[in-house]
């Protein structure tokens, strides 16, 4: 039998309040004890617009819209004039970002500029500063698209070498490993302005040997469940080691759907086949350019990017995260007011979560483009039907799930079924026979001939019978290995209460043996 976990009555109650879910610690109803061989079946429906929380951002980690924050590692100031109100207190900074850009993001791009230490070892004070920020993100239950860089485009470029980068990676690896639960992806960074791999002093980003050595060092530093990203397909191709290359996804830092000179993620670009091939299984992040209300730079972009066209591109390239800070005075407001219908989304070959464009009475409802993108970037997991029965081994469980998001999950996570007793403790549990990264989304919108049907995956497990008879709640827990449910995945279903990451699927009663 699985021993009791850290999921206690207190943490369950706290989780239930945070998720605005139906309380799960009320006394279970007096269900009849299960008889051997008899299946109990329960069907579930997706969240409708008028369900409690039906228009809120779903708590599903490592996906969706993101904020952005930047710190100089030497003192946790920001190098940017428009971020001087950002505080070393991360929770305060997140409140500032929510006030400025709106609610709805559980991820942030996180830059650390190492300009002061480009050719020296990182002092303990700088490492402590970095840890302070990561610890703040953990407290805030926010994850990071992490990037380290030397050059910020403001101060003079630094003369760092491959050896300097490798030495810094060795210093940073233990720290990032300790906070792997809050690292969505660790981007390649380091080279060039803003860590975007252009304009470094020695042009290391153009030399295969240098690129291979840097990326080998970064991949060696990555926590096991975390991947990395580069901006350009041609840079990924420079990595001569196939095993290293297989840990690398992409980030597009200039999304304009091909209208701008620096958006290479378009059909016909030499890198397009690579982006199509890599994005289904590797993390993909992106941002639009700053708009002219945010920046005087010549590359600023001040035309609203069409939301349907953007959704098709983001879905085709299996994007997981997208900045809501960039183009925040032009395109983002346009998306917040643009209305989408179920018919428009279907005609564009895009997925929609079950009931997403409906009210509980079945009538149709419009959503904003912002809502739609917020809720479908990355994965969105729905339960369709569960079945369970008593068996000689304990409790057999089957659960049908569907992924109505843009992308498959990219980060490995164990999938467990658990039985919660009256106090909310785990009385029994068992791993499911699944890799949740195989919970695939529908076919890609911009690729002719791909199936637009959302696949359904059946997940199975057998749980040992609990030691004591009585009522229990059957739940699903999908969280990082060795972690509690703080970053547990919430199912996109109505009537499925959530507490401390456990999705409660139904009630089970065990009689005396």
From TrEMBL:
<dbReference type="InterPro" id="IPR032379">
    <property type="entry name" value="DUF4874"/>
</dbReference>
<feature type="signal peptide">
    <location>
        <begin position="1"/>
        <end position="26"/>
    </location>
</feature>
<keyword id="KW-0732">Signal</keyword>
<dbReference type="InterPro" id="IPR006311">
    <property type="entry name" value="TAT_signal"/>
</dbReference>
<dbReference type="Pfam" id="PF16116">
    <property type="entry name" value="DUF4832"/>
</dbReference>
<feature type="domain" description="DUF4832">
    <location>
        <begin position="247"/>
        <end position="493"/>
    </location>
</feature>
<dbReference type="InterPro" id="IPR032267">
    <property type="entry name" value="DUF4832"/>
</dbReference>
<feature type="domain" description="DUF4874">
    <location>
        <begin position="61"/>
        <end position="233"/>
    </location>
</feature>
<protein>
    <submittedName>
        <fullName>DUF4874 domain-containing protein</fullName>
    </submittedName>
</protein>
<dbReference type="Pfam" id="PF16173">
    <property type="entry name" value="DUF4874"/>
</dbReference>
């Amino acid at each position: 039998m699985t021993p009791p976990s850290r999921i206690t009555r207190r943490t369950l109650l706290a989780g239930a309040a945070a998720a605005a879910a139906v309380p799960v610690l009320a006394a279970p109803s007096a269900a009849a004890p299960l008889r051997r061989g008899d299946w109990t079946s329960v069907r579930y429906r997706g969240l409708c617009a008028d369900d409690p929380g039906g228009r809120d951002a779903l708590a599903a980690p490592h996906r969706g819209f993101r904020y952005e924050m930047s710190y100089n590692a030497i003192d946790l100031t920001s190098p940017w004039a428009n971020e001087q109100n950002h505080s070393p207190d991360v929770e305060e900074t997140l409140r500032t970002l929510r006030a400025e850009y709106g609610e709805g993001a559980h991820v942030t791009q996180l830059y650390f500029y190492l300009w002061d230490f480009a050719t020296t070892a990182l002092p303990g004070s700088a490492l402590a500063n970095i840890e302070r920020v990561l610890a703040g993100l953990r407290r805030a239950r926010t994850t990071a698209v992490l990037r380290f860089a030397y050059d910020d485009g403001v101060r003079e470029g630094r003369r760092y070498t491959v050896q300097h980068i490798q030495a810094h990676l060795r210093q940073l690896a233990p720290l990032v490993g300790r906070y792997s639960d809050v690292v969505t992806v660790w981007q390649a960074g380091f080279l060039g302005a803003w860590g975007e791999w252009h304009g470094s002093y020695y042009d290391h980003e153009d030399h295969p040997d240098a690129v291979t050595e840097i990326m080998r060092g970064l991949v060696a530093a990555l926590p096991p469940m975390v991947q990395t990203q580069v901006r350009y397909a041609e840079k990924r191709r420079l990595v001569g080691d196939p095993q290293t290359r297989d840990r690398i996804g992409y980030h597009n830092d200039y999304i304009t759907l091909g209208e701008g000179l620096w958006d290479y993620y378009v059909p016909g670009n030499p890198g397009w086949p690579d982006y199509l091939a890599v994005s289904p299984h590797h993390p993909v992040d992106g941002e639009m350019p700053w708009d002219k209300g945010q920046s005087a730079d010549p590359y600023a972009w001040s035309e609203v990017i069409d939301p349907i066209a953007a959704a098709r591109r983001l879905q085709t390239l299996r994007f997981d995260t997208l900045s809501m800070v960039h183009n925040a005075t032009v395109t983002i407001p346009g998306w917040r007011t643009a209305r989408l219908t179920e018919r428009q989304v279907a005609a564009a070959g895009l997925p929609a979560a079950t009931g997403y464009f409906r009210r509980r009475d079945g009538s149709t409802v419009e959503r904003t483009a912002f809502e739609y993108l917020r809720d479908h970037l990355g994965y969105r997991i729905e339960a369709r039907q569960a079945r369970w029965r008593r068996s000689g081994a304990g409790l057999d469980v089957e659960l049908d799930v569907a992924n109505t998001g843009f992308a498959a999950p990219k980060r490995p996570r164990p999938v467990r079924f658990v039985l919660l007793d009256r106090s909310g403790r785990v009385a029994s549990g068992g791993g499911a026979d699944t890799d949740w990264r195989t919970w695939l989304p529908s076919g890609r919108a911009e690729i002719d001939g791909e199936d637009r049907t959302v696949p359904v995956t059946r997940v199975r497990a057998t749980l040992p019978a609990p030691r004591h008879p009585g009522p229990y709640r059957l739940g699903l827990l999908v969280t990082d290995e060795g972690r509690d449910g703080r970053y547990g995945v919430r199912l996109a279903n109505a009537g499925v209460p959530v507490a401390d990451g456990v999705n409660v699927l139904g009630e089970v009663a065990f009689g005396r043996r």
